[in-house]
Amino acid sequence: MRHTKNETTHQTLTRLINALDKQQPTTITYLKEEKDENGRKTGHLTETVRTVEIYDFYVSNAGDILAKAMDRETGERRDFRIDRLVSYTVHRTAYVIDRPTSDEPKTRTTTGLATVTVLYPVDLDLTGRVQLLADTLAA
Predict the structure, then answer these.
(1) Which of 11, 82, 114, 120 is the most buried (most CB within 10 A)?
(2) Strand partners of residue 33
C-alpha cells in the first residue's frame, strides 16, 4: 500500500497511469465529501475504500486532477480527485468491468468541468507521458 502523503502528485500519477496502461485494478482509500438528506454536499470528508478500474484522467475547471474509473462494487462510473487519495494499492489482476463507450449517454452532469485531451507519441515512455500531462495541465 502506498500512502500519498509520502510521495509527490507526480509519483502518484505515474503509478496510476502505469496501472491504467497495464489495466490493473487499484484499491484506493479516498476522502469522500458527505451529502445531506437532500443530496447537497456538507463539506465534511469521510474515508472510504473502493476498488476501481481507472480508464482516463482529466482536469476540472478548478484545476483538480481527476481519475475516471469504474467502481467494482457498484459497476458504475466514478470520478476521484487525486488530491483526495489517502493511499492506494495496484493489483496484479486484470480489469473485469466494461467501460462506457463515448457514444453512451452520460449519467452525470459535467457542468463546471473541463476536459484536456493529451495525445501521446507512440514511442513516449511512461515518465514522458506523465510530464506531458503535467505540462498540459499547467498550460
Answers:
(1) 82
(2) 45
